[in-house]
Every structure is written in structure tokens, then in C-alpha cells.
Amino acid sequence: MNNCAVILAAGEGTRMKSSSPKVLAQVLFTPMIDWVYSAVKEAGIDDICAVTGHLSEVVCAHLAGRCETVLQAQRLGTGHAVAQAKDFIAAHSGGNVLILNGDAPLIDKKTIEDALTFHVGNGNSATVISARVPEPTGYGRMVRSAEGSLERIVEQRDATEEEKLINEVNSGAYWFKCDDLLGALDDIESMGREKKEIYLTDAIEILINQFEKADAYPAETADVILGANDRWQLMELNEIARKRILKRHMVNGVNIPCIDGVIIAPDVEIGADTSVLPGTIIVGKTKIGSFCTIGPNSRLEDCVVGDSTVINSCQCEKSTVGSKVSLGPFSHLRPNTVIKDGVRAGNFVEVKNSVVGEKTSISHLTYIGDSDVGRGVNIGCGCATANYDGKNKFRTTIGNNVFVGCHTCMVSPVNLGDYSYTAAGSVITEDVPSGTMAIARSRQTIKRKVRKYNED
Ligand code: UD1
Ligand code: MG
Q1: Rounded to whole angstroms, how far apart are CA atoms 217 and 170?
Q2: Per-residue pLDDT tens over the stretch 291-327
Q3: What is the C-alpha to C-alpha distance for residues 132 and 398, in angstroms, rounded to an integer?
Q4: Inter-residue contact 178 to 91 (CB < 8 Å)
Q5: What is the Cα–Cα distance from 37 to 97, expressed in whole angstroms?
Q6: Cα 165 to ligand 2 centroid, rounded to whole Å
Q7: φ and ψ at 164, to 5 degrees?
Q8: Count of beta carbons in the 10 Å neighbourhood of residue 447
Q9: Which one of 22, 289, 369, 430 is CB 3.0 to 4.6 Å from 307, fit for a cystine?
Q10: Helix, strand or coil for residue 210?
Q11: Is residue 363 a contact partner of residue 388, using CB atoms and an 8 Å limit?
Q12: Average pLDDT, whole number, for the chain?
């Protein structure tokens, strides 16, 4: 089918008080325009054109390679914005065009598809996706005749007191027959001359006056039409999207006993019988297995976690964590870390760009950076790999079943062989062969009677 979509994204969004374009304001860590774009793609529409204007270069760079863009040099209204995409719409002559607002991110595949079925099924020239909302202020109102048919859309600023009471509003998303919309665009512009801006919504009245069919498709839930014009509305959209995602996980068997501070990004996957506890933020392409406990107060970004793992009050970025692992409280996994099955890493342990083998224990106050640690290793309290000499980074290798005594400093590059041992307080600068013990500290000596004691 020769259908296409135009996303309006030129607006300034002055009430956001942001130096970024409004359509890049984020809902659940995802720019609003990406939500709209994904919904359109999911509905099977691949030909997409975005109309950009305010900070156009930033929006175009964001969309690069994903869709066409056209510039609206001056913000003269939504009708004028669509007119900038005339050539794009004309290239889809004979098909239908979906027009959407880039600042209304909760539109979804189902609403788009159902509205198209309604549009095509009824042979409509235009179909407006509408919704009933308790507080219609700010939205265009759907004006219907005494018989109930759609007559026109009136904007807030032009509405009479009586029209302002109408609570069926325009979502800003519409299906049009491409050819009919193109025909109406010139008329919209001339209507706009009498008003402050050129309204796309005037296309409805124009088409009806031309005896074309225009109707409203009421969305199943009002959420899908909500837009964000300021930060408070943005928070409200975040709340709706957040709860939608939490509910999806709960329906799939994830246990979230209290949703306070729990934020899960759209692409995260979590297995059944895993619990997510308050204050936990899981973002990016994170994938968590079953029977885990994540949280409280943890943040995971782009991580893969196995089954039956506990992550309590930790920060984990771009890392892989195996099964039956216990992390935390207060551990930090920095990028490119692999923690294998059965590992325990505890209080104030930081691991970066390292592999930690099965059943290794790093329980307290330790830094492991740029290291390959074997299995069954015990790393005592307060150890560090000195991986950086001020200019270059070097790797440390710790074999299997090594015992690293408390407060060992491993000055890399250095290797600790299998079953080797370092004495507490050692500064290891040379390799330790397998099965040996390194003591690299000065021997304790006792000097007698240097201080008086027991005499106040
Ligand atoms: C618009 C609709 C209103 C509807 C509401 C839903 C019109 C005239 N009114 O009003 O009926 O209820 O959306 O949210 O269409 N934009 C441009 N260029 C412009 C002006 C706007 O690209 O010159 C873009 C904006 O970036 C935004 C979208 O169009 O993504 C809507 O613009 P906005 O100014 O927010 O329109 P509303 O007043 O919300
Ligand atoms: Mg708006």
C-alpha cells in the first residue's frame, strides 16, 4: 500500500525552557519523536517524513538515516508545516497519509492501524483520531452537528464559551487521502490569513464543504493523545509510560511489590519470578533472567544478567553478570565487565573492563580494573590493581584459586599464577609463580620503650 506518514516536529516548545528541541525531550529516557517514529514503523509504515524547524540541524542529525526531513523555515502553524511536505505527500498519490505531532509520544501501533481500517473502510477523505478527556483546555475541540456528524475542529483560542465545554478533542493525529489533503492545503493557507496561524485542522471543514467524507475515530484510551508542552506534562507522560511498562512486566510474571522509584526503559527484558525492588532504574537494552532480585536502589544500563542473581544497591553499566551471583550492597560494575556464575562482590567493590571467574569472591573495598581474574579466587579486603601509570593502562592477570591477601596492591602489568598467595599488605610488582606465596612488604620490627604508657 502506498501509505506514508508526516511527523510535525518544527515547534519551539518555549514552555519547556530547554536549550534542546522540544521533540527530543525524553519520556522514559527516549526522545518523544522516537516514540512516535517507532509507533509508525510498528504499524508497518516505512515512508516517513519529519517537518523540522526550531533547531532543525539537531533534529535532523537525530533522525539521520531513519527518515526524510523537510525544513519549515518559519513556524506559521501546523497547516503550513504539512505544506512543506507537499512533494513527499504527492509522491504517495493514491495512498493515505498519517499526520502526527512529534510531541505526543503515547500514540501506538494499534490506534494507528485501527484508525486506518476505519478510514479506508468508510471511504473517508479525512479521519481525525479523537479522544474524550476530562480537561480539554488547550486542545482543538471536535464540533459535531445535532445529528452527531463531524463538522469542524475549533481551536481553543477561537472557541466560543459553549464550544469550550466540548470534551471530545483532536489528538493531532489524522489519516488523510493524500490527494484530498494536497487539494485542501491551498485553501487552508488562505483561511490562515485571517487568523494568527495556518491550521491543519481547517482541512476538515474544507473537505466537508467539498462534500468529502471526514469523520472522527475515537481512541480507546485518552492516553494516546496526550502531548507535553511543559515539564510537568512531560512528567505526567513519563508516569503513564512508566506504569504501562511496569504492568507489562508484572503481567509477564515479574514481581514488583512496590513501584516507588522503579523505572524500566521500554527495551528491557526481565524473566518471570524476578523481583524488582524500589528505587531501581533499569535502562538501555538490559536483559535479566529469572529468579533474580534486583534492587533496592540499583541502576543497570545495557547489562545482561543470568538467573537467580541478587543485585542490591549497585550501579552496573554495559556489563555481563552470570547466574547465582551476589552483588552489593554498593558495588559498581563499569563498562566491559564480565562477572561469571557464582561470584560474590560486596561492599564498595568496583570492577572495570575485567573478567571475574566462577565462584570468585571480592567481598570488601576493592578495585579491579583491566584484569582477568580466574575462578575460585579470594580477594581480601581493600585490594587494588594499580592499572594506570599516569600515561598507559596495563592488565593484571590473576589465575585460578589464588588467595590475594588483604590490602594487596597489584602494580600491573603483573601475573599471579594459579594457587598463588599474596601476603596481606603486599605491593606486588613482579609476577608470582603458581603455587608460591609473595610477601612484598617490610618485616615488622619492634623498637622497645619509644613511648611511655600507662602513665597519665
Ligand atoms: C494542535 C492542534 C489541536 C490538537 C493538538 C493536540 C492545530 C491547529 N491544532 O494544537 O487541534 O488538539 O495539536 O496536541 O493543529 N508544529 C510545526 N510547525 C508549526 C507549528 C507546530 O511543526 O508551525 C508542530 C509542533 O512541533 C508539534 C505539532 O506541530 O509537534 C503541534 O503543534 P502545537 O503548537 O503543539 O499545536 P497545539 O496547539 O498543541
Ligand atoms: Mg501541542
Answers
A1: 10
A2: 999 999 999 999 999 999 999 999 999 999 999 999 9
A3: 65
A4: no
A5: 14
A6: 19
A7: -65, -20
A8: 6
A9: 289
A10: coil
A11: no
A12: 96
DSSP output for 150-180: EEEEE-GGG--HHHHT--EEEEEEEEEEHHH
Closest residue CA from atom 20 of ligand 1? 77
The residue to which cell 617490610 is assigned: 442
Cα pseudo-dihedral 16, 22, 26, 32, rounded to 10:
140
Length reported for the chain: 456
Ligand 1 within 6 A of CB of 128: no
Please tell me whether the overall predicted TM-score, pTM, comes out greater than 0.90 for this model. no
Grid coordinates representing 37?
517514529
Cis peptide before 329 (omega within 30 of 0): yes
DSSP letters for 13-65: -GGG--SS-GGG-EETTEEHHHHHHHHHHHTT---EEEEEBTBHHHHHHHHTT
pLDDT in tens, 37-82: 999 999 999 999 999 999 999 999 999 999 999 999 999 999 999 9
> CA-to-CA distance for 366 and 189, rounded, in angstroms?
68
Residue pLDDT, tens place only, 391-427: 999 999 999 999 999 999 999 999 999 999 999 999 9
Name the residue of 52, 78, 133, 154 to mutate for ligand 1: max ligand atoms within 8 A of Cβ.
78
Q: Is 332 helix (H, G, I), strand (E, B) or coil?
A: strand
In terms of Cα–Cα distance, which of 383, 398, 382 is closest to 431?
Answer: 398
Q: What is the rounded CA–CA span in Å between residue 403 and residue 181?
A: 75
Q: With a 6 A CB cut-off, is 170 part of the ligand 1 pocket? A: yes
What does the alpha-carbon distance between residue 274 and residue 20 come to, in Å, rounded to a whole number?
Answer: 37
- In this predicted structure, the answer to whether residue 454 has a pLDDT above a threshold of 70 is no
**Predicted pLDDT at 455:** 60
- Within the chain, what is the greatest distance between any pair of CA atoms? 110
Q: Distance from first CA to last CA of the chain, Å, rounded? A: 96
Contact 400, 384 (CB under 8 A): no
Task: Name the helix (H) or strand (E) containing 405.
Answer: none
SS3 label, residue 419 = coil
CB count, 10 Å around CB of 120? 15
Residue type, 246: L
Which residue has the CA at smallest separation from atom 25 of ligand 1?
A: 11
C-alpha span between 423 and 437 (Å, rounded):
7
Residue 327 Cβ inside 6 Å of ligand 1? The answer reads: no
